[in-house]
Amino acid sequence: ARIRRYKWEVKYEYKSPDCYKKLVITVNGKTPGPTILARENDTIIVELKNSLLTENVAIHWHGIRQIETPWFDGTEGVTQCPILPGDTFIYEFVVDRPGTYLYHAHYGMQREAGLYGSIRVLLGDGKTEPFPYDHDRSIILNDWYHKTTFEQATGLSSLDFDWVGEPQSILIQGKGRFNCSSPGIDAGLCNATPSECSPYVLTVIPGKTYRLRIASLTSLSALSFEIEGHNMTVVEADGHYVQPFVINNLFIYSGETYSVLINADQDPSRNYWASAKVVSRQNTTPNGLAIFNYYPNHPRRYPPTVPPRGPAWNDTAPRMSQSLAIKARQGSISPPPPLSDRVFVFLNTQNKVNGYVRWSVNNVSFNLPHTPYLISLKENLTHLFQQSLPPTGYDFVNYDIYREQDGNGTTSDSIYRLDFNTTVDIILQNARQLLQNRSETHPWHLHGHDFWVLGYGDGKFDMFNDPKKYNLVNPILKNTVPVHPYGWTALRFRADNPGVWAFHCHIEAHFYMGMGVVFEEGIEKVGRLPTSIMGCGDTKGWSQRP
Ligand code: C2O
Ligand code: CU
């Protein structure tokens, strides 16, 4: 295994990813930032300089379990103090498995200012993938807002609630196109000519097979991705091999990664559209477009056809059936323990708390503490957060998930303490949100682990019958999973990674509004904490400790 060193500088710069000029956060001048390329078991060292002038930062390595390095998970408030302006912080961790992963800011709502990128971990030397392909490519899908994260965060946390609304554009590998002639757009800020906002081009050689790694880091949107005239074979999800299946369009939720195989076997005399469309929410966001370019056609030549329209935004059935189709690949199945030691049911609702709109789990909306849990738990500073346990379920006999939430919620910074090495089931139960008669899709992401996806269903989870239908034979392992509108999703994981780990909705605004929980396991097994993660809250000055 090798050591891969990166020197990154994070700063604000003016960019026009969708032709509209705004301040974005770049890594070494780019958004998306540089791709981390490694082989399994390599050590990654990122020396991160915060040049944001007036803003803290922290970077999370999404999908990397951080075994024996829980302090480098990069989750502000959970595993580390924020990195102050002018400071340099060194992340050092092992990428212990091949697959497609991500990195992104994990401080406030900073991710959506553009601080994100890909991690591609290849198999160790001499190993081969179970499916053949000629070339390997990555793209990240994202949604894009013109308002700053500060305006958005302020709107969300004001009594006079101001929702962020639908994104202005969809970006494919950092490029999109906003219509600069829309009414009310300042011509000085919107300019349709910069090369930054010309569509992303994916060039292919006729007859070759491509492994396309597709990831989503949207703030809000669920997406459907397709390449006009080409089917895709799904082979990987969140770093695990999938029993291959063929699709026309891929539904992808924020925090998920997939690999698909695409054969460049269509008429090579022209180019094709690649398109990403918002689904699950009624929206006005134009589809994100890229060019699937057959070499040697000119890469900027627009396809002669109208871009695909994509599926209807409000049709949940095909999304549910894609979720159900994702199974572990034969020959690489690691089945879950047949029974669990503990079951949590997490009701997902929107609540009012003292007049503020919040998202909650079992009517408790999460607040981050000022001293990161990892430090307060390791150092026995347990007075620094609420010690009562958060609720492990809700009133599932009487609660009507189709009715508007009537009770108020509470906020808390309490966490779930898991017995080390036990098996934990989580049932995510979706419900109706406030005011509107609908239920949203929430992609839940677990830090520090993968979980088996045991099942999905519509309506209210039935404690007696639904567990009998769990897939215990070949469930896929993932780190991010959707809970569909008015549906449930059941997961199982082993609490075998000493540390403190966030589990939250990957929608930026939802987590910001409290839609998350924290698990502690095996804190006594965590090694000596590096002082570099300290310095905030009750650990002021500790970063200078010997
Ligand atoms: Cu990719 Cu806690 O998030
Ligand atoms: Cu959510």
TrEMBL record:
<dbReference type="InterPro" id="IPR011707">
    <property type="entry name" value="Cu-oxidase-like_N"/>
</dbReference>
<dbReference type="InterPro" id="IPR011706">
    <property type="entry name" value="Cu-oxidase_C"/>
</dbReference>
<keyword id="KW-0186">Copper</keyword>
<dbReference type="InterPro" id="IPR017760">
    <property type="entry name" value="L-ascorbate_oxidase_pln"/>
</dbReference>
<comment type="similarity">
    <text>Belongs to the multicopper oxidase family.</text>
</comment>
<keyword id="KW-0325">Glycoprotein</keyword>
<dbReference type="Pfam" id="PF07732">
    <property type="entry name" value="Cu-oxidase_3"/>
</dbReference>
<dbReference type="InterPro" id="IPR008972">
    <property type="entry name" value="Cupredoxin"/>
</dbReference>
<keyword id="KW-0479">Metal-binding</keyword>
<keyword id="KW-0964">Secreted</keyword>
<dbReference type="InterPro" id="IPR034267">
    <property type="entry name" value="CuRO_3_AAO"/>
</dbReference>
<keyword id="KW-0560">Oxidoreductase</keyword>
<dbReference type="GO" id="GO:0005507">
    <property type="term" value="F:copper ion binding"/>
</dbReference>
<feature type="domain" description="Plastocyanin-like">
    <location>
        <begin position="10"/>
        <end position="121"/>
    </location>
</feature>
<dbReference type="Pfam" id="PF07731">
    <property type="entry name" value="Cu-oxidase_2"/>
</dbReference>
<keyword id="KW-1015">Disulfide bond</keyword>
<feature type="domain" description="Plastocyanin-like">
    <location>
        <begin position="138"/>
        <end position="296"/>
    </location>
</feature>
<dbReference type="InterPro" id="IPR002355">
    <property type="entry name" value="Cu_oxidase_Cu_BS"/>
</dbReference>
<dbReference type="InterPro" id="IPR045087">
    <property type="entry name" value="Cu-oxidase_fam"/>
</dbReference>
<dbReference type="InterPro" id="IPR001117">
    <property type="entry name" value="Cu-oxidase_2nd"/>
</dbReference>
<comment type="subunit">
    <text>Dimer.</text>
</comment>
<keyword id="KW-0677">Repeat</keyword>
<dbReference type="Pfam" id="PF00394">
    <property type="entry name" value="Cu-oxidase"/>
</dbReference>
<dbReference type="InterPro" id="IPR033138">
    <property type="entry name" value="Cu_oxidase_CS"/>
</dbReference>
<feature type="domain" description="Plastocyanin-like">
    <location>
        <begin position="406"/>
        <end position="522"/>
    </location>
</feature>
<dbReference type="GO" id="GO:0008447">
    <property type="term" value="F:L-ascorbate oxidase activity"/>
</dbReference>
<dbReference type="GO" id="GO:0005576">
    <property type="term" value="C:extracellular region"/>
</dbReference>
<protein>
    <recommendedName>
        <fullName>L-ascorbate oxidase</fullName>
        <ecNumber>1.10.3.3</ecNumber>
    </recommendedName>
</protein>
